């Protein structure tokens, strides 16, 4: 496997050559680094931090520099880093002078949990609640709706559990009759209304975790959620406190919406690294940009166009003209969330299970590297890797014989 990795790494170096890129990472006792370019998102490395002192911003930057050097990536081509909203990541962004794009799903979950769920709390929680997510409350509401058609069977159930364990607490629910816990008609209406709100928020959360998510889509989702839930507007607006590089994110959104003319001076400065090279801008220039009288002298079509066809033609000219005037590169490849990192750890758990605990760090990294970049492994690379590994084994055996 190691021999295969040594042959795949040059393929990644060639793919990254001359490309603008962004870096995504995720830190939960381990640091996974992905590189996102206009071509694809690639897994680079995985490193574990055993000691707490190795989790500082300086250690992260030193590790990132080592990874960039290994894959021959130039730091001046780094567009942004995509990571969660930890203070360490914010410090990294400031020190390497690269904008930080926070996880949209993480930000949304915090906003929903802090602003909305505090008003609709529940003391009894049969579904475990995650510290950063609120999906447990949504599952609890759905479970209630599944049980509701049968709750009338317990309207007269005043008995308590007769077989309680000796260590049961005084406020144990089994000490009270079920009828005491049945919601009133008014409470049932509140639960139904809350579940409808939860369905909207659940849809938004799932959309924020999709791989093709862009920053402009995130802004559209946040704006629509703010319309339905005004209490979340302050936490989802563009310049809220949790956003580290609000000028960069706002600039990218405006560019993707075709609103470059509305960029402020600070936004223009933050997105200056997204400008197309002069030669590329001239090569991509649309022929319809410079319209002269010769364009109007074209022969009239044999069939008169319908009103809709005429409108589409006029709109097409406007779109082509707006596209040709854009000074910035296509930004749809910039990830709005580091969902690849979360999926990496999920895949690691599914693929290896408890075996990963008995593996060395190097073996685990090699397996994940080949699994995530398997499309680069060809028959030629596999054959060459096997041949190189055999040659190394022969050399090692000869060295052992000489020593003996």
Automatic annotation (TrEMBL):
Residues 285-312 are annotated as: Disordered. This is HAT C-terminal dimerisation domain-containing protein. PANTHER family: BED-TYPE DOMAIN-CONTAINING PROTEIN. Residues 286-300 have a biased composition (Basic and acidic residues).
